[in-house]
Amino acid sequence: MRRSRVNVRVRVAVLVGALVLLAVFAGTTLRGDGPGPGVALVPTPSSGESGGAPVPDPFAYDAEREDAFVERAAAGTSHVLYARSPGGAAATAERVANWRPQVEAAARAARVSPDLLEGLVFLESAGREDAMAGDAEGAVGLTQIVAETGRNLLGMRIDVERSARLTRQIDRALLRGRLFTVLALRRKRRSVDERFDAVKALAGAARYLTFARSQLGRDDLAFVSYHMGVGNLQGVLSAYGAERPSYARLYFDSTPNHNAAVQRRLAAFGDDSSNYLWKIYAAREIMRLHREDRAELARLEALQTAKNSAEEVLHPSASTPRFTTPAALRDAWDDDDIVAFPDDPVRTGLARHPSMGELAPRIGSVPGLYRGLRPEALALALYIGAQTREYAGGEGPLVITSTVRDAQYQDRLVRGNGEATRNYSLHTTGWAFDVARTYRSERQALAFQFVLDRLQVLGVIAWVREPRAIHVTVAAGAESLLPLLERLEDG
Fold it and tell me: Do residue 391 and residue 272 come from a single domain?
């Protein structure tokens, strides 16, 4: 089989289109032979074997593009809301919408956006005024207020012992079908535990946000602190050093190599805290769709819940071309719609596993046909390899076990591989690849995890953890990294 290359058409796209996209997203201005001073670059091997011109990093934080980062983060973190909302996102939105008048009243009291407060209700309780996270000492009610915070900071009436006893009685009455008894017990519980009173719970949340803003100086930071806590967030802000930055700046301007102390603190809290604001924004968008475009909400819910990641949002089955046979895949190689995955760990930070394409002879094909990706997907894989190696202090490479397939290869794989899907596989589109879950060190594993999470938050990839591999699907809009392919050609 002939060696594939990036043809003139792709080169033109790189020079005329992709670099423009880089400038638009990352706020960079290309001057002379390369990026201007201070522009973050995709790292090259420490040996200096860059094999090409410097490539601006389109995913590095830029204050001029902060709104774009925030918009991407809302979309990139929305999958968990669609996948885990009780009854589904649309049903949850219906419940939350019932509280809109009370939400607006509380938002006026706190002088915050009612849409954000509504997003908080979606995220915290899915619109259920009797929601409980554990026992009565824990988070309770429409806004999930912890007993200690409610009593000591928000001045709420909370009798934990009586609340717990009434909750047990409510549960027993529900099991016995005594609905009138349940209603009476719930009224009594609201009187002894104001967290179960939706209006008072919203008022408590409003008081918390007012207090948090007085301590932190910004609405966005106040909402972040609702989950992280004011003291914890103050510690993160202190590590960053700048006076009251936006949360977008705090989050996106911190990596394992830049503002590393901030990144470590945020990682220690976990995604529930570090990505909390993006999830509120995601919930806000779901509520907007519920009011304005329910058909689009239903479409997105179907795509978001089709798989264990948002990969079908990136490439819907109904509109994404697939390779059905080896002949169809061979044509894609000939047209440079698929390009070769390199076996060059030193320059790429990626190693091609020798088993890649091993089932090809069983369907009358050749292994090399299954060692490639869409150009944009390959460019994103190269970015992941470069960033992981940089953050891991030069360790590597990551091992890529699988790239493009056709439907015949996929059918053959399913017979002996329980992880392979019998349904729509993104591997048959050329947009997906798998990374072995075998790492050189804990540092490399953590670096890779950071890169995956950051790119997912930005909506650039969807990924899912499988028993032996990380399955990564690349968004079609990754053209901004196509210049990385030039490094391979120059070698």
Answer: no
